[in-house]
Amino acid sequence: MSSLQELCSGLPLRPLPENRGRWAGVPHAPVRTPDLSPEEEQLALRNALRYFPPDVQKLLALEFAQELRQFGHIYMYRFCPSIEMRAYPIEQYPCRTRAAAAIMHMIMNNLDPAVAQFPQELVTYGGNGQVFSNWAQFWLTMSYLSKMTEEQTLVMYSGHPLGLFPSSSHAPRLVITNGMVIPNYSSRTEYEKLFALGVTMYGQMTAGSYCYIGPQGIVHGTVLTVLNAGRRYLGIEDLAGKVFVTSGLGGMSGAQAKAAVIVGCIGVIAEVDKAALVKRHQQGWLMEVTDSLDHCIARLREARKKKEVLSLGYHGNVVDLWERLVHELDTTGELLVDLGSDQTSCHNPFNGGYYPVQLSFSEAQSLMSSNPAAFKNLVQESLRRHISAINRLAQEKFFFWDYGNAFLLEAQRAGADVEKKGANKTEFRYPSYVQHIMGDIFSQGFGPFRWVCTSGNPQDLTVTDHLATSVLEKAIADGVKASVKLQYMDNIRWIREAAKHQLVVGSQARILYSDQKGRVAIAVAINQAIASGKIKAPVVLSRDHHDVSGTDSPFRETSNIYDGSAFCADMAVQNFVGDACRGATWVALHNGGGVGWGEVINGGFGLVLDGTPEAEQKARMMLSWDVSNGVARRCWSGNPKAYEIICQTMQENSGLVVTLPHEVADEQVLRQVLRL
């Protein structure tokens, strides 16, 4: 296939494309183990074949059955397109609306092999963050988008395009739900079966909402996290000579190496998958690579002494690395690490998200599919060793935090010593980075705002960088509170460093942590630049679901909510609905993401700026709600910074009226009336 026109013409059936199977030379998703009964296998096949007319079903049934039994899922490899998968300039898509073309641009970026973790299995990041469940869904979605008018909405059920439905021109052009399983059935075991049946999907966060922008998306968050960890734990602004140890270079975790360089520290990142390590090294995100622990420790010592800026990839298991650091401490008295975390995909620990230290990478992949129970036991034993090493180092001046990947949650379930005495069930011995480092940022309305220049022209991105910097500098000049100024200054530094470090992988995109005022001002400036011709094509605004209002996740985004509502999902659901009502081009609501299936509800949006007054009005209205919703919720939970911010926002907008909490004046009254 040679053109986007053909890609948008519907499923290729006559003739059928050649079945080339799995590609060589690209990473592939681990084999899934759904443990289907014979009746469920038949149902999975029946569900897959309903995309195809009867005259091709017999041929396809045989190969789909082989895929199901060999890989645990029907991906429909025959229909994986031969076109170069990337974000093409928006004007090249054969569409009736610019909104549809922008969505196509975003979808193809999520599946770009330079961006996606397992492109042929339609996984963007996180080990199982799907864009679609199978390739038939991709073809149908592209066809629907090419036909869609301004008075239709495309409805997506967990990767499946239900169809185009008549709607208002003011309604979203696309509404996505992923993994909306009835709560009592939202378990990992049930998920594996439902995914194999082709009836639900784990969209992670920005994979299934088509808003992923490559590892840059988490580079900025990691930069801010490490900077603020240095401030909080080490009491310093300059991280030169300080050592940050972590793991993961695959999907989003690939950001860690670049973040270490940007903040000026020494980053040592372990990765078991050599392909992921090589990919980051070739992209320039990783400065050096070694498979020798001896060399790793020697190089770490040298860089520490010289205060070098270094990102060093260790090809091996992170547990070996942590245990070696303990050995160095116990035998030499030298603590070689200052800060630590983990970005393995621990939300999916038994299906490729976490590799046990007892096995090689290939041995683990084999055992994972041949004996899942034995593999699970080894993972949990490895987690206990992992925590034991961290606990020893933490007895010294070393600080560890959970990066919201369910690492401490899974370690607890494995029986590791992570208990925090007297704490509630969302707290562990080590804090979530939201609790200690990023939580106050969310309460002030700061979160991962992003945009994509659909022209594909780097010059357009440069213009937006200048605009965003100017907006933040003007805000500082006009006067802001010290805490807000610090965040703005971090963002100005980030934009300058991002351009210098060539962080774009895939679409021409940028991310920065901004508050409500900053987001609206940047959006308005970009829209006006499109209208004047300074930017040559529409720009898509979005954000990570991991944001002020987008996610209810008691072990991550809402882990610092202490009024008992951390396990409630009203905020994320209301955000999804509210964005749709206020002008979003598309909206998405997901079960799972970050911490894992059944552990979180999250949502996101895409908003196309095209230079029109209507686009500016939508941006002002929708972005204001998208932040204020979460700040108001955090205020009601008792957060004093959120209280301050929402009161200030109400003063600036007479249409905003929020219920404010009253503090209990005398805590003794509670104990007295309950006779405690």
UniProtKB/TrEMBL annotation:
Swiss-Prot/TrEMBL GO biological process terms: L-histidine catabolic process; L-histidine catabolic process to glutamate and formamide; L-histidine catabolic process to glutamate and formate
Molecular function terms, GO-annotated: urocanate hydratase activity
Annotated metabolic or biological route of this protein: Amino-acid degradation; L-histidine degradation into L-glutamate; N-formimidoyl-L-glutamate from L-histidine: step 2/3
Domain Urocanase N-terminal: 85-211
InterPro entries tied to this protein: Urocanase, Urocanase-like, Urocanase_C, Urocanase_central_sf, Urocanase_CS, Urocanase_N, Urocanase_Rossmann-like, Urocanase_sf
Keyword annotations: Histidine metabolism, Lyase, NAD
Annotated NCBIfam families: hutU, PRK05414.1
Family note: Belongs to the urocanase family.
Protein name: Urocanate hydratase
